[in-house]
Each structure stands twice: as C-alpha cells, then as structure tokens.
Design a protein that fits this description.
Order of helices and strands: EEHEEHEHEHEHEEHHHEHEHEH
Bound molecules: zinc ion
Shape: globular
Strand content: 15-25%
CATH architecture: Alpha-Beta Barrel
Number of domains: 1
CATH topology: TIM Barrel
CATH superfamily: Aldolase class I
C-alpha cells in the first residue's frame, strides 16, 4: 500500500487529517477570492487619475527662457497652448504673468493691457469653457520682488497691498477670469479681494488663496519668473515646514472665514500629510500644487510614474492637482484610453 499524500491544506497527525489554518479571506476590506475573476475585478476597477483631476500652470513671459518649464510661453503662444490643453481634456489652468516694467508700487499690474489681462481675454474668447484662475500677487510686478507693497521703512504696507490685490482681482475678473488666487499669504487679503469682487458685481468669481510652505521646490519657477525677493519678507509669510500641519489648518480656517472658495496647497510632494489633514478639516475644495521643483522628479519618473504620483495626491485628499506635468500626463492618459478602447 503506497503512502497517501495528504491533500493540499491538510497534514497527517497520527493518522488524523488536520486541516491547516487558512487565512480568513473576504469581509470588509479583506481580499475576496471573487476579485480574482476578471469580470468582477473590472466591475470595481476605477482609474487612479482622470484628466479632469488635472490643471496646469501657464506662465506668460515676453521671452520664455530656453529649456524652461512646460507651460512657460510667449504671449503669441498663449492661445495655442490653452487650445492644445483643452483638446487633451484639461479643463482648467492657472495663469501667471511676467511684469516687464517693475516698480516699487507694481503699477504695471494694474495696466489693462499687461500680459496677464491680455492672456485672460484671449483664452476666454477662444476656449471659453477653459476655467482660468489668475495669480493675484505683487511679486511679478514689484521692483523689490516682494509679494506685498512696502512702506518707506520697508514694512508691509497693508492698506496699499490690499488695494493692489483688490484692483488686480477686479481687473482680471473684468477680463473674464473665473477665479483669482491671492498668493501672498497675507491675512486680510482674501477678505479684501472677495469684497472688491462682490462690490464690482463679480459675485460668481471664486477666490482661491494659497497655503504655501517654505520649500526648496519653488526654485525653477522663481528663476523663470524672476520673483525671488531681494530681501527676506516672504519667508515670514510662508509656513514653517516643521510645524506646517498645525499652521496650515489655522490658515485654512482664516481663509474660509475671509471667503475662500478653495485652497491651493503648495508644494505637494513634501506636504502630503498636510494635504490629508486639510482635506479632513475643511469643506472647501483643496487643490494640490505640485510645484516647479517637483517637475524634474516627475519627468524622471516618466508619464506612468507621474500618473501614479499625481493619483496618490488625489487619494490623499486633493480635489484637483495643479502640475507642470499636466500635459505629459494628460497625453499619457489619452493614449492609454485609446489603447483600451
Ligand atoms: Zn507673490
């Protein structure tokens, strides 16, 4: 009589078959054997990231530097870029413009023919359903490079800074902007901008302030736009990385009280914990801004890796991801969709 091998999952113990402990499967959060079936898996499968989750920065410069960032374009290329992005499925962009004639009071920021205003007008007249958010800040327009206007003593001139941001916001809204983004992290600026927009009849124009951490990951943007201040005031406005989560939550409460419709957290790569905490603490939309310094890393990852990374920001709580990789990833998602179809 040959030796009988115990069936799989059993062992012989003194002639008694003992069923080995099988790990429990299924149940809430467990791994159900049913999911191994292709049809069942595809019933539950969702893409990690959709093109509608993405929005792109568009930087308008008189002469974009060679080898600059994606989306850093000359005025003549603004409409073609926005149209190309729209055709890829992107539905929003954030506009930044380069001040040519910088002055202590940022006068050019209020010129109705400056690069920002012209870009808003041309995009909204060509691709009207592309949602345009504009940066409202002094740093691209002031000769000292600060986000705010200064008193003669070099302190922040609150009244003048609020007035500048309010007038910029109304100018952008008049040109057709759907939302404005006060980015200076100056308490009171969101309220000032909100009130100015409402007073000018732009009730439906949104206000999307920044929640900005101090980081090395703004570098390429600051070099392209030349917005690195000569002095050090800006650091005082940004959140300190080692206590950013608590500071971000406090800032979010203040911005909400001042009338913010959404919050733009930057950077993303080194602040995912802040993103998750913000999502849990606020009811307004949260945009994760994957900044210029993150782009080199995303490029190295390639479009599939970048898709996975940007998708992880969505999972961590972002309603929208603002990224210099938007065009690369939108192209990749489109190709993957075509392939699947
Ligand atoms: Zn600024």
């Amino acid at each position: 009589m040959g030796h009988r091998r115990p069936p799989h999952g059993e062992d012989r113990l003194g002639g008694v078959h003992v069923v080995a402990a099988v790990p429990r499967q299924g149940g809430p959060g467990g791994i159900s054997p049913g999911r191994a079936r292709h049809a069942v898996r595809s019933l539950y499968e969702r893409p990690l990231l959709d093109v509608r989750d993405l929005t792109a920065p568009l930087l308008v410069l008189p002469v974009p530097p060679a080898g600059g960032l994606p989306g850093a374009v000359a005025p003549a290329d603004v409409v073609a870029t926005a149209s190309r992005w729209h055709a890829l499925g992107l539905r929003g962009l954030k506009l930044f413009a380069f001040g040519r004639d910088r002055s202590p009071k940022a006068d050019e920021a209020l010129d109705p023919e400056n690069l920002m205003v012209r870009a808003v007008r041309s995009i909204k007249s060509t691709v009207p359903d592309m949602v345009v958010t504009t940066e409202v800040c002094g740093c691209a327009w002031t000769s000292h490079g600060e986000c705010v206007l200064l008193t003669e003593d070099g302190d922040t001139d609150l009244t003048a800074s609020y007035a500048l941001m309010s007038r910029m916001a109304v100018l952008h809204a008049d040109a057709g902007a759907d939302a404005v983004s006060p980015t200076a992290m100056l308490d009171g600026s969101v309220r000032a901008v909100r009130d100015a927009l409402t007073g000018a009849g732009h009730h439906s124009v949104g206000v999307s302030p920044n929640i900005a951490l101090h980081t090395e990951l703004y570098g390429p943007f600051k070099r392209v736009m030349r917005t690195d201040p000569a002095r050090g005031n800006r650091r005082g406005f940004q959140l300190e990385p080692h206590r950013a989560r608590r500071q971000a939550l406090a800032q979010a409460r203040r911005w909400e009280a001042e009338g913010a419709d959404s919050l733009c957290l930057q950077p993303a790569m080194t602040a995912v914990d802040v993103l998750t905490s913000l999502r849990a603490a606020t009811d307004v939309r949260v945009i994760a801004y994957s900044t210029s310094g993150e782009y080199a890393a995303l490029k190295a990852l390639g479009p599939r890796g970048a898709t996975e990374y940007l998708g992880s920001l969505k999972r961590a709580g972002a309603d929208l991801v603002l990224t210099f990789a938007a065009e690369d990833v939108a192209t990749h998602l489109g190709a993957a969709r075509d392939h699947a179809g």
